[in-house]
């Protein structure tokens, strides 16, 4: 059994209530932080822990906190990004639904560390039932004196507001989220200025993912060094992995970073292997935006070593043979999956979710989707594959926010690793458009 | 030409709306726009122009600011919809679990295509993108309720159940 | 003694150094050097606060961030929003990556554009036309259906052609910043976004006509000028009048003795210098209403400059430089001595070539 930091008590009956959560040792971090620590000491512990942003970018959280500008007389804000919408990712949904107080406790200590007196949890609007769970938990915590004025007699005030989104993937991008929180369209802002300087209401703001904030309680209770001792190298701690697709046991798993990908897929403790009677074809390791890998490259690095579930190991080999840990949306494909169809599906997603503000993303995502749609439906041309690669290159890196990259990578990587399959669709349109038809040419299945 | 709106919040919802507006710092009441639109849609079933104009007045902003926002986000139905809006996830992981086949069955069962409403006004079918329940796919949502691990039989049960609701 | 003058920063753009004040953007610094190195701007509009960053036409490469931190920036940056640092080295058209990205932007902007220049009133003074001339290709790789929109009527003065719109948001900023109540905005999202009023409504206020001048393309045009003439056949004349609402400083566009259009005055970057009211623009079209100042000096990189009094002697154009850079003698099987075509020698263009970095072979 690997170490569990976030989900240790998740199966305790009634853990969603304050009392049970408290019995399991909940809210001790708030007591410790507010009574015995200074905000700077907390930031220091989080830095020591080396925890990296769990929303996808993997930016060190302590460093992000230390960038927060602190001008006199200007309020500072902490905003929790719970706009989980990346296809393949459902860990925050799971965490908030089952153990809402973990997030609230993390919000309290993090807000204290950053000097915020009003903090927001921006939850995607589709999860309205989770919003109600969180609001109930906040009311409980407030009734017990852990929120509101003069928390635990420390003189520190904090108000938590749960804000619903309106249905837009782009609001998971931190500046789009802030725009949305200000009651506007979710158009990402040009950076700089970064939110740490000018964020919500033009005030210094930190935006962190649910899972990142939830780890802070454990770090305060056990120390940054203890957290850094878990995991591997610069990938410290544990990570929630959302496992979906063709496996025996889909679900959310908390793993210690550094676990071999092979173990995660095949061991009974986690995914339990590919669904019976089928073979492993491809893997999207970190949410739909990261490059897709064929089975052999998913399990081993180019040099033959085992690939591990860590930021470094998953990105080993760059875009040629690697991918990214991203948000931990682990989507497994067996040999019945059509890569072309899936690439079109993801491309349609990014087309649908583009905010339309900057031209490469607005026009490019639609173009890629239409070309992929043609190929998938038997109307592809020989030059379409090269066209897709070129269009994806013209989007990548040239947009206001990372959605452009997120739209480009799945297409570019699918063509890089499964070009034959695209070619087959173009060469054999009649065959390829039969119901359930999948390319059965030469490829490494595991 | 602006007509006096006939739509307004019920007293309970008005109280809730005021409580929502009070959450934000002074002068930042526009932040309440998304929650208020949800509240209005919960009451009216959809987001009408009159409803949006009412919210604009409440927040002291221009109506166009509300229209811009309501048309940006996918959850606001700016056209009238049926009693139950089925928002069906069409994204990759759900498709891997047979989402397309279940969707086809659902369409056949309801006798409508995506974007349409049944003749009796009971059901509207919408396809949406990822609902963050990928491990439990295929998934759809009706109002706040998630329905997971869908199969053709399960879909039939759900439709029967919803049809019976008064 | 403290120096009260702000320290000037030195930035080098395409090999040309220029001194600017702190807070200046790369685009403004480049404009200070001249049109030869100024990146194109489709959405940035200096008089409008908050504009810029959207079209990505002005992307440049920062080869060195500053003297203090000379590392290059990892991605191309929007020059209209990126502030200059002392010692910054910027590559504009000298960098093949930048040129390639811009070619891409033109292609993206034209994907769904109707290419109806022959019937578009904006033709000849269209930023997109100029941008496409400089960075575009003669053919398209786009085989899909073009996006269309339902036609919307936004009042008696302004014609909206949504299909031509590139979503620069300039008209939205204009309505926000110089009119009291904004009634139009961007509706929908992604490539289905459109400029509109949502409910059938006329954009009606004293300054609404200015959205026509700020529009970089033919999406918003003057209904009172519709199909009256091609802009390059008209004669612009600076004029003013005593207007109770605005400055009254305008440009009158003549066909013969007839004023067929009134616009605000624009500088060499196609930006309005002073916004004008609708009365001046739409209702005051008799020469006797105006005090004529003299012919407008036009110096914009566009067809509009043809046959006009020019503010400068020669307008350099990127297209010409590109032609020079790519110059190859035409391989022609025919006996060219039979043709009465004088082929221009490449030296003809060489003088306008910047100290270009040779692209990697």
The share of residues in helices of chain C is 10-25%
CATH topology description of the largest domain in chain A: Rossmann fold
Tally of distinct domains of chain C: 2
Query: Main sheet of chain A, how many strands, which sense, barrel?
Result: 5 strands, mixed
Order of strands in the sheet with most strands of chain A: 8-7-13-10-11
Number of helices of chain C: 8
The Cα radius of gyration of chain A reads 22 Å
Mean pLDDT of chain A: 95
Cα distance, first to last residue of chain C? 55 Å
> Which word captures the global form of chain C?
globular
Specify the number of helices of chain A.
19
Binding site for [2Fe-2S] cluster (chain B): 89, 94, 130, 134
Keywords (chain B): 2Fe-2S, Iron, Iron-sulfur, Metal-binding
Organism (chain B): Spirosoma oryzae
Cofactor (chain B): [2Fe-2S] cluster
Your description of this structure?
The complex is a heterotrimer of chains A (446), B (166) and C (361). By secondary structure, chain A is of the alpha/beta class. Chain A contains 19 helices and 13 strands. Chain A has helices at 18-23, 28-36, 39-49, 61-66, 91-98, 100-114, 128-143, 174-181, 210-222, 224-228, 261-266, 295-299, 311-314, 318-321, 339-353, 359-376, 384-395, 403-427, 429-432, and strands at residues 77-82, 118-123, 159-164, 205-209, 231-232, 235-236, 238-245, 251-256, 259-260, 280-284, 293-294, 308-309, 329-334. In chain A, a hairpin with a 2-residue loop joins strand 5 (231-232) and strand 6 (235-236). In chain A, helix 6 packs across helix 9 and helix 16 (359-376) packs parallel to helix 18. Chain B has 2 domains: 11-72, NADH-quinone oxidoreductase subunit E (Arc Repressor Mutant, subunit A), CATH 1.10.10; 84-164, Glutaredoxin (3-Layer(aba) Sandwich). Chain B has helices at residues 11-21, 33-44, 49-59, 63-72, 92-96, 99-110, 152-164, and strands at residues 84-89, 123-128, 140-142, 145-147. Chain B has a 4-stranded mixed sheet, with helices on one face. Chain B is elongated, with a radius of gyration of 18 Å. Chain C is of the alpha+beta class and 361 residues long. Chain C has 2 domains: 9-95, Ubiquitin-like (UB roll); 112-309, Alpha-Beta Plaits, CATH 3.30.70.20. In chain C, the strands form 5 sheets. Chain C has a 5-stranded mixed sheet with strand order 2-1-5-3-4, sandwiched between helices. In chain C, strands 12-11-10-13 form a 4-stranded antiparallel sheet. The B-C interface holds B 49, 62-65, 67-68, 71-72 and C 181-189, 197-199.
